[in-house]
Amino acid sequence: MKQSLDNWQDRKASPAYWIAVFFGSGLIRPAPGTWGSFAALITGYLLIAAGVSAFVFATAIFVVTIIGTLSIDAIERQTGVHDAPEIVIDEVAGMWLALLPCYYMDTSYALFIAAFVLFRVFDIIKPWPIGWLDRKVSGGFGVMVDDIVAGIFAILGIEILAMFGFL
Q: What is the Cα–Cα distance from 61 to 97, expressed in whole angstroms?
């Protein structure tokens, strides 16, 4: 079982904490990873619906990955806790990555739902190499990388569903 950050006295004063918990979505129980992914789905949908370009959206994914990695590294240095359950910034990067097909496919609610479900399935089940990365890569990047790969797997799943006419 993962160790929580509940015992970290200064957590609420730390900008790194609020970034890592994606402004509180990771604090919702049960299943904080699912809630963080849902918050990422909603924010991703709003960005896409607002007309943010694919380049800007991809840049946002890159920036969230870098800032998430640095925030998680800072938290780990201060607490000694690796990959606390309330840290969900990794789900944000992976979920937003899974939404990239919205820029080149007919966008529908089914596409958003498929991206969410596929991302969560790959993030929870962790097929190779996702599980291997989760176990072998340390630090903030280790927390982020398995979700990035889960997002890539979700894109592949979306492509397969589209190829067979399900999306």
A: 7
Provide the sign of the torsion angle of the four alpha carbons 26, 131, 110, 30, taken in this order: negative
Residue 22 carries which DSSP code? Answer: G
In the three-class reduction of DSSP (H, G, I as helix; E, B as strand; rest coil), residue 129 is classed as: coil
Q: Side chain identity at 152, as an amino acid letter?
A: I
Q: Which residues contact 107 (CB under 8 A, 6 or more apart)?
A: 48
The pair of structure tokens assigned to 4 is: 């929580």
State the pTM of this model.
Answer: 0.95
Q: How far is CA 159 from CA 10, 35, 50, 163, in A?
A: 44, 25, 24, 6
Burial call 26-57: b when 16+ CB within 10 Å, e when fewer: bbbeeebbbbbbbbbbebbbebbeeeeeeeeb
Distances (CA, A) of 47 to 31, 36, 60, 67: 25, 16, 10, 19
- 3-class secondary structure, 3: coil
pLDDT tens digits for range 25-50 = 999 999 999 999 999 999 999 999 99
